[in-house]
Structures are given as structure tokens and as C-alpha cells.
Amino acid sequence: MERLSKDPAGVAEYGVIALLFAGLYALSSWNYLLFHSLTELFSIVIGCSLFVVAWNTRRIVDNHYLPFVGIAYLFISFLDMIHTLAYKGMGVFPHHGADLPTQLWIAARFLESSALLAAPLFIRRRLKAYAALGVFAAMTSLLLYTIFSGVFPDCYVEGKGLTGFKIAGEYFISLILAGSLLSIARYRAAFEPKVFRLIALSIILTVGSELAMTLYVGVYDNSNMVGHAFKILSFYLLYKAVIATGLIEPYTLLFRNLQRREEDLRHANSELEAFTYSVSHDLRGPVSIMEGFARMTLEDFGSKMDGELRKKIEVISDSAGRMGRLIEDLLALSRVDRKEIRMRQMDMGKIARDAWREVKESCPAGEKVRLYIRDLPPATGDGSLIRQVLANLLSNACKFSGNKDIPAIEIGGYRENGRSIFFVKDNGTGFNMKYYDRLFNVFQRLHGKEFEGTGIGLAIVKRIVDRHGGRVWAQSEIDQGATFFFTLPAGQFQVSGSLAGDRGLKSAVTDILN
Questions:
Q1: pLDDT of residue 270
Q2: Helices in 58-128 by DSSP H: which ranges?
Q3: How crowded is residue 142: how many other Cβ atoms within 10 Å of its Cβ?
Q4: What is d(CA 427, CA 400) in angstroms, rounded to the nearest whole number?
Q5: I want to staple 208 with a disulfide (CB 3.0 to 4.6 A). Which of 86, 230, 386, 420 is the partner?
Q6: Angle CA 216–218–222, to nearest 5
Q7: Please, are residues 370 and 509 in contact by the beta-carbon 8 Å criterion?
Q8: What pLDDT score does 210 carry?
Q9: What gap in Å lies between CA 512 and CA 500, rounded to an integer?
């Protein structure tokens, strides 16, 4: 039982249980038949409730131990119901004596112990629910047939008490239950600790019930009463494990395996990223050699080659170059996830200027681009990673606006709801918002071969912003340019100023962008 000192509700709960048993004990002294009927009715109701929960949750849990047990208890409850109706004094089966309910008790407990022994098989194996229903229905029908046809051995003889078969059967069932307890203990990690403790204690009390049932002579004896009391407790604990926990704490019971899957998936991603990094790093050397030798071959022997051969060597050189850039981008993507983030107050204006100087040299249209950096709001983050975000966005903006007569790029930002929002806006070719869902995915490109790229730059942007707890999005129209936004944690206010040093350029750039 659970510790009660820290749970006043638990103290009250077990106090009610103690009063209930005191009342049942008094009831058994006054009318044992009523006591027996009430205790069996309790177990029947719980058994049917277990089935209802198991049947309706079987599709949303991966651990099918409890669904299997729940299906089994429907048929166990059915046998218990017939056992209750057949009990001495009920008068439902007048031509049968006390042997019939005793046989039904043994049959029900055999079905129960067998189910608990087999249930651990479905902790990591999917249950075929209808097949389980069929198997338990067949077993129940066979047990009832053997009992009512006289094949089942006698379990109780009037005036003598329990038969050797009945006593041996109780011990055998107890051994099966002990085996089921050892079996579930091997898989205790698959259960919430509370659920495991309740199931284990329920099995132990069921064993106690079986042992008590080996001691009585008359069906109204005290040992019979103790056995039924233990049975009530065992069913109640199973109720706590499956019904109460399943309804009051559904997240921890029903979605435990979902949480474990998420953790495992987070671990199938870290390993994949490490593998990607390793492969990309190992490929970089051979690809660089391939490109280098192709380029040297063209430089040294290009004039002596015929046109067809020269064209093939150029294709090799270009392809190796594209592969090299792809590998570099993959390595950059891997480094984003592996790098430890150091959150600091950032000078966003300086970061923007540094990013542009990095991009301008490699952008063909860099010299003619009109760039304006607005006064930027404060932000907190990892400066090197945020510079990479701006460099990737500026590189795209420069590339896709390079075919304009006056390519223009604007970097700005503002505060909203406690966050700093930044944007990079260009007046380039833009893109079709119909394909927006593909925009930030790896290897997804929305333009043809007229624009170079590997389809990884925006994926890197999103990954970095995600790691800062922000989000990134874009707006665009075809031939009307594009604007990319991202959010960062806010910091103290700062003034950036214009990279061009000409604030009068602001209106001109705005006109061009709009």
C-alpha cells in the first residue's frame, strides 16, 4: 500500500476501506450469504469496468499488458457471476450442492492466474483484441462444459470439506500467480512506478486469497470469509491501477510509451546528425581533390583538348564544386545542432554589418545593392549564430534581387509582445506562397537552376531561430520581392544606424523596396 502520511486524501480513503471491512465482517456474522453476494458483486463490477477501459484504450497504448488483463477479467467476472448464483443458499441451481460454486471458483481463479501469467507477453507485443476475446471465450466455454457435464473433478464434499484436487489446485494457482509476479517484475520499467506497485500488490493479495481458500471446511467458515476479503482488496488495487489511474491520470498511464518514443526519437535524430556530420566531413576531402584535379586539368591541358572532352571536364569540375558546397552546408547544419548556445546581449547593428561584409564579397550583385539598416531593437542570443542567420538571409536577398536594375535590401526590426522581431526585405524575384510549406525544409528549392543554391540555407536559419526559442516566417509575391522575419528574446535598447552612412537614403530605399 502507498505511504499515507503525506496524503490526507489517502488516509481518508483507507479509513473508509477499514470501516467497510468492519461492516462486512459484522454482516458476515449476521448473514454470510449476503456478505458473499456483495463481495462477489463488487469484484464482478470491477472486472467488467476493467474490460470497458481496456477495450476503449487498446488503440492508444503500446503497452498492452493492461488491455489483455482487462479482456481476461470480463470472462473471469462471468465465471464469478455464475459462482455467486450457484452459492449454497441462493437456490438458482437447486440440483447442485456446494461442489458447483467451489468448482466455479477454481475455474475462475485458474483463468485469472493464467491470464496474469500470459499478460507480460503483451508488454512489448501488440495485442489482437478480437483474437484474445475468442481465446478467452473458448477457454470459458470449455471450463463451463467440463463443470456442468461432470468431467471437472469434485472440489467439495458435503460433511468432509475440500477435496485433495481443490487444495492442490489452489496451491498450483498460487504458483502460477507467483510466476506472473516474477514475470511482470522483469518489465517493471514499462509501467509507471505507482501502477506497477498496485498490480504487484494485487497479485500478492490474490495469492493470499488462494491460500486462505485451502483452509475452510464449511463454505461459511472464517477462512472462506478471509479469502473473499483478500479478493476484494486485490480487485480494488487493480481498480486503482487501471480504472482510477487510467481516468484521473490518463497522461501518465496512457501516454507513457508516447513519451518514451519521443525521447527515443530525439536520441534516432542526435545519432543521425552525428552520422551526417561524420559522412559529410569524410566526403569533403575526396570531393575537394576531385574538383582541384579537374580545375588543374583544364588549366594545364584545356587548350589541347577537343571541345567535347573539355566540356566533360568542366561538368566534372562544376559538379564537384556543387557537391563541395552542399557538403559545407550540411556540415554547417550539423554544427548548428551541436554548438552550445551562449546567450548574451547583442549589438544587432554590428552583427548586421559584419554579416553584410561577409556576404557582399561572394554576391555578384553585391557592389550595386542598396542596403539600409534601420535602428534595430535589442535582442539576446548567440552572436555567431545570429550572424549566420543574417548572412544566409542577406545572401538569398542579394542573389534573388541581383537581376533588378537597382537591387535593394533593408534590415529592420521592432518590438512586439515582449519579443524582438527582425526582418530582411528585398525587391527581388520573390516566390509563390503556394509552396510556402516547403520553404524551410532541407533540400527544398522554390526556384530553378538559374539561381544557385543547395536548399539548406533557410533550414539553417530556422534551426538556429528555433534553438533560440523564436520562430521564422516569410511573406512574398512573385516579382515583388520577399520579406523574412524572425524573433529573438528582447534585450536593452540600442541604435544601429545606416551602413551606408546616409540616413537620407532611407526614403529612396523604401521607395525601391515598395
A1: 62
A2: 65-86, 99-118
A3: 12
A4: 8
A5: 230
A6: 55
A7: yes
A8: 85
A9: 16
Whether the Cβ atoms of residue 347 and residue 494 lie closer than 8 Å to each other? yes
Distances (CA, A) of 472 to 42, 56, 372, 389, 494: 58, 40, 21, 10, 22
3-state secondary structure of 450: coil
CA angle centred on 218, ends 17 and 179, rounded to 5°: 60
* Inter-residue long-range contacts of 50-59, CB under 8 Å, 24+ positions, other chains counted: 50/74, 50/238, 50/239, 50/242, 50/243, 51/77, 53/242, 53/243, 53/246, 53/247, 54/242, 55/129, 57/246, 57/254, 58/127, 58/129
Mean pLDDT by 10 residues, the chain (514 residues): 50 67 67 79 85 80 83 92 87 85 93 93 88 94 94 88 89 93 88 85 89 68 73 82 58 54 63 60 67 78 78 76 66 67 88 89 78 88 88 87 84 89 90 79 54 68 89 87 90 46 40 44
Give the whole-angstrom CA distance, residue 224 versus residue 217: 9
Reading the block at residue 12, the C-alpha cell is 481518508
Those residues whose C-beta lies under 8 Å from the C-beta of residue 172, and which sit 6 or more positions away, are none
Task: Give CA–CA dist 326/455, Å, rounded.
Answer: 9
Classify burial at 164, counting beta carbons within 10 Å of its beta carbon; exposed 0-12, middle 13-18, buried 19 or more.
exposed
Per-residue confidence (pLDDT) for residue 448, from 0 to 100: 46
Residues 6+ apart with CB under 8 A from 10: 2, 3, 4
Q: How far apart are CA 17 and CA 235, in angstroms?
A: 13
Chain centroid to Cα 381, Å, comes to 29
pLDDT value of residue 495: 42
Q: What are 474's three cell numbers? A: 516569410
